[in-house]
From TrEMBL, chain A:
Source organism: Pseudosulfitobacter pseudonitzschiae
Membrane topology per record: Multi-pass membrane protein
Compartment list: Cell membrane
PANTHER family hit by this protein: ABC TRANSPORTER ATP-BINDING PROTEIN, HIGH-AFFINITY BRANCHED-CHAIN AMINO ACID TRANSPORT SYSTEM PERMEASE
Keyword line: Cell membrane, Membrane, Transmembrane, Transmembrane helix
Name of the molecule in the record: Branched-chain amino acid ABC transporter permease
Main localization (coarse): membrane
TrEMBL record, chain B:
Native source organism of the sequence: Pseudosulfitobacter pseudonitzschiae
Protein's recorded name: High-affinity branched-chain amino acid transport system permease protein LivH
Family matches, as Pfam families: BPD_transp_2 (PF02653)
Presence of the UniProt keyword Disulfide bond in the record: no
Compartments reported by the entry: Cell membrane
Amino acid sequence: MNNPMRDDQITTDPSKPAQRMRAGSQRLAAFPWVIAGLALLVMPYVFTDNSAITIMNQMAITIIFALAYNMLLGQGGMLSFGHAVYAGVGGFACMHVMSNTDFFSMLPLPVLPIFGGLFGMGLAMIIGSFSTRSAGTVFAMISLGVGELIAACSVIIVAFFGGEEGVSGDRTYGLPFFGIEFLQQIEVYYLIAFWLMLSALLMYLFSRTPIGRMANAVRDNPERAEFLGYSSRWVRYYSFIFSGFFAGIAGGLFAINYEIVTEENLNTASSGVILLVTFLGGVGFFFGPIIGAIAFTLLQTVLSLQTDLWAFYAGVLFLATVMFFPGGLAGLLMMHVPAIRMGKASKLVVPYIITLIPALIGILGLSALVEMTFHARHSSVGDEEMTVFWTTFDSHDVLPWAIAIGVTVVAFGVMRMMLPTLRAAWAEANTSTKGGAA
Amino acid sequence: MDLVLVNLIDGLVTGLLLFMLSAGLTLIFSMMGVLNFAHASFYMLGAYFAYQISLALGFWMGLIFAPIIVGVIGAGVERYGLRRVHQYGHVPELIFTFGLALLIEELVQFIWVRNQMPYQIPDVLNFTAFAISGNSIPAYKVFMIFISIAIFIGLLYVLTKTRVGMIIQAALSYPRTVEALGHNVPLIFMGVFGVGTALAGVAGVIAGPVLGTFPGMAFVLGSIVFVTIVIGGLGSLWGALVASLLIGWITTFAKSYNIRMEDILNGIGISTPENLSESMFRDIWAVTSPQIADILPYILMVLILIFRPYGLFGNRDA
């Protein structure tokens, strides 16, 4: 983690507050990891349902992938539109290792993702050699082009990508790992959870290495980084390779979990989804993508059961995030740290409740209106019954429309009335009474 | 020889369509320094609006009004979306337009469902213009060629010969100076963004009946447009023209001549392996040019970026 030696050089006086704070955070640094590990262990006992375990597996894979992606976007400032390629190729590689039964039967399944990682890394080494020359627009365009190119190859190079039906395999042919043959979902869950902890820790440690730190410097100002004697191109290249490695691991875990990898795993849509997940969670913080992956997977699985329009809502949410909270969910959470430090966060609770509840009702009303519009426009003739929020009504009737519009308008009106209170409370909570810096 | 001529015309149509999209995109890029990822989505909106208008008022009204509506929407996006995101930097801007592309696709599906729309070529243009040794060239293709060229010349004229064009060009390079001279630069930016998206709208109106009007049409063309302007050199209008025509012709010729990879490899002295069906590289040997026609632009782009990172005509290494 943080190098204590270097901190000592900054301030040697132990009475300095900066020193004390740093020492405290040193001890606390292991705390979130222990909590996360315990949570991963206990989760299957809390949510015993098979479908819940499926969702958690999906979530964990997305977390690894999003963290790998954030290594580029958040830490290195490289916007990639084709990162699914590295995960996908890793997945395909693992599938081919699985189908080579002679070799696979000597290999314990838990080490399989390493092959995915190595393949993802190898591809990243090739592509990165010319794409990391610059960040910004050119990098984004190359990543898009390469992504399209490799996705298109999946229908041409059938031997590796398996054409349209993809490649499938059987994970149970591997060498039993302490007697576990990974027949059950729960066993796979623990395998994925182990890899999640390991890769998240490694990625965190990578972000603390000189290269990880220099990646931030290169993101913010390549010229100055060059001036310090670092080649910004090589720093980008190394970040890219490591990101490819962990993306490949995520792909390998995908292959183990679903036992099938198809073109969908590497096309532009998947790359777009991971960008969405990462940005939604927040690219400015290490844990941002984790929040994003959890929130998005929940949104995807829960919302898609409720409505056909879930992608539409996801799109609106994404645009709203880019426009109003460029720090994502993590940035939103971290905005409260100064208030908590000063012990004034409790003052925000009541204003939050009286503002957010009307806002939530307003959003629900608005989404009801969207659903009703969609139904009224597209339902077949005679089929005018629809169900929104457990109420069934006729979508061509005036009454439900009046209710939905009324609820939305009133709720947003109340929210607007409450906003000054919230603003005042926010300003109050973030002003230090002692006059010191927060 | 006749087939070459037919292919040249077909490639020209594809290339000029591509150029209409990339011209607007290039204009916007050189203005704001950000690539509008949703550009092809405005092309799709153009096609859908034109279809909806053509149901009521006929094709020609669609050709006039759909681009105007698209341009107004584009200007609104710049005014209320992009300008707001601008303060956060270029990467969030790019992400914003990417999200916009997703949202427009969802919106189109929301309003018009997933099916292909029966958007037809107008009856006036639905005949064979001329034939080259049995290959008939429809009048609509000729119409597409002429309208694209007319728009290109018009754009060039406005940009280089008129006062408005001079102000725009100056605002692209020295926004602060132009502002100090009393011109409303944000308004100019909004206008250019609107015109750029309207240009994409025109392309959508005239391509909709030929290439099909369906929710995936933005996606199909979207990445090719980026490839085009990267090959041509970011920010270069002439580069965009050359690259569009190049891509149009390459894909058309690759599709119409069945060149096999095996023949090429044999030609350069690599003999076919004895047991091809067992070889790891059997797919590479079996590849034919029509199969890879659609990915040739991407291969070209990667090659260009390796050997000439600023594109064919680009002068800025962005």
